[in-house]
DNA sequence: CTCCCGATAT
DNA sequence: ATATCAGGAG
């Protein structure tokens, strides 16, 4: 994939998905952004947003969450799945914020990925949406799937895909490219039933005619 | 590589 | 009934 084609894809998608809010989770500060993004692993944002009000009403700050009773916390976050691991992670992350970052959320990749439950994807989301920093490209399941289908990257390894996207796009677009790829992945280029006929970048995509049509014809 | 795990779409 | 969902840890 060449840079010119990659930029064309980006501009087509931005035209389809104009946005003022570039996130899908209902957070109001960096702490809430961090916690909700950890909880969003392998879970739809709708499910996360549904439990968010109860979660932050019970635990408004890192101090409150660090002192949470695990069983009580698990009951609140259970609908998001992986609730035992996630509960342990967000209590641990809150405790780390208190112990090492004066109760605040660090704004550097190296610090964020030391927090339990936080990898590069979650760290990139927090950096971009809570601090406006484009340290890298967040590669989630949608970004990975679309990158492979469109041909933005040839690998299935999220870290390699991130490097490919960082090489293809200027740094100021690293946050937005994640947003438009996820949006397109949800609304058109879905995992099971991609709507290739109504896709406005299908003429660029190498995917139609392969798995795309085969998947679509199954129904 | 497996495991974590409930909600939702197909 | 099964694949998938704003992944990460062991």
UniProtKB/TrEMBL annotation:
InterPro entries: DNA_glycosylase, Endonuclease-III-like_CS2, Endouclease-III_FeS-bd_BS, HhH-GPD_domain, HhH_base_excis_C, HhH_motif, Nth. Binds 1 [4Fe-4S] cluster. Its cofactor is [4Fe-4S] cluster. It holds the Pfam family HhH-GPD. Keywords: 4Fe-4S, DNA damage, DNA repair, DNA-binding, Endonuclease, Glycosidase, Hydrolase, Iron, Iron-sulfur, Lyase, Metal-binding, Nuclease. It catalyses: Hydrolyzes mismatched double-stranded DNA and polynucleotides, releasing free thymine; 2'-deoxyribonucleotide-(2'-deoxyribose 5'-phosphate)-2'-deoxyribonucleotide-DNA = a 3'-end 2'-deoxyribonucleotide-(2,3-dehydro-2,3-deoxyribose 5'-phosphate)-DNA + a 5'-end 5'-phospho-2'-deoxyribonucleoside-DNA + H(+). It is an enzyme of class 4 (lyase). Its EC number is 4.2.99.18. Residues 39-187 form the HhH-GPD domain. PROSITE patterns: ENDONUCLEASE_III_1 (PS00764), ENDONUCLEASE_III_2 (PS01155). GO terms for molecular function: 4 iron, 4 sulfur cluster binding; class I DNA-(apurinic or apyrimidinic site) endonuclease activity; DNA binding; G/T mismatch-specific thymine-DNA glycosylase activity; metal ion binding. Gene3D superfamilies: Helix-hairpin-Helix base-excision DNA repair enzymes (C-terminal) (1.10.1670.10), Hypothetical protein, domain 2 (1.10.340.30). NCBIfam families: nth (TIGR01083). DNA repair enzyme that has both DNA N-glycosylase activity and AP-lyase activity. The DNA N-glycosylase activity releases various damaged pyrimidines from DNA by cleaving the N-glycosidic bond, leaving an AP (apurinic/apyrimidinic) site. The AP-lyase activity cleaves the phosphodiester bond 3' to the AP site by a beta-elimination, leaving a 3'-terminal unsaturated sugar and a product with a terminal 5'-phosphate. This is Endonuclease III.
